[in-house]
Amino acid sequence: MQFQLNTDSNIEGDDRLAEIAEDTITGALGHLTSRLTRIEVHLVDVNGAKGGPDDIQCKVEARPEGMQPQTVTHADADVAAALRGAGKKIRALLDSEFGKLAAR
Questions:
Q1: Tens digit of pLDDT for each residue in 15-52?
Q2: What gap in Å lies between CA 92 and CA 104, rounded to an integer?
Q3: Of the candidates 86, 78, 98, which has an alpha carbon nearest to the alpha carbon of residue 39?
Q4: What integer pLDDT is reported at residue 40 of this predicted model?
Q5: Given Cys at both, which of 40, 44, 48, 76 links 82, Cβ 3.0 to 4.6 Å?
Q6: Reduced to 3 states, what is the DSSP secondary structure of residue 63?
Q7: CA–CA separation, 73 vs 80, rounded Å?
Q8: Residue 45 in contact with residue 56, Cβ under 8 Å?
Q9: How many CB atoms lie under 10 A from the CB of residue 91?
Q10: Is 16 helix (H, G, I), strand (E, B) or coil?
Q11: Torsional sign, CA 42, 26, 37, 86
Q12: How many domains does the chain have?
């Protein structure tokens, strides 16, 4: 499985952040990572330098084998919280999608 982190100009996307993002998202997905070919995480500071509540937006796109990409978005006060929230959302979405396939 490939992992890619993208950030805007207001968030420093260094190797440390990439490692934290990968650990957070793959940790949230657990065993589902074996069914994915790629995960892309996009972090954006919506308000830039102004700050404010829920101004960090995290979009996660997961690409399951043989299926269309699945995407969720979560906004929160800081990067870590945005990653955790998006991780929970993508896990719930993929559990639902894989459950539908199993029911067929």
A1: 999 999 999 999 999 999 999 999 999 999 998 777 67
A2: 19
A3: 86
A4: 98
A5: 76
A6: strand
A7: 14
A8: yes
A9: 19
A10: helix
A11: negative
A12: 1
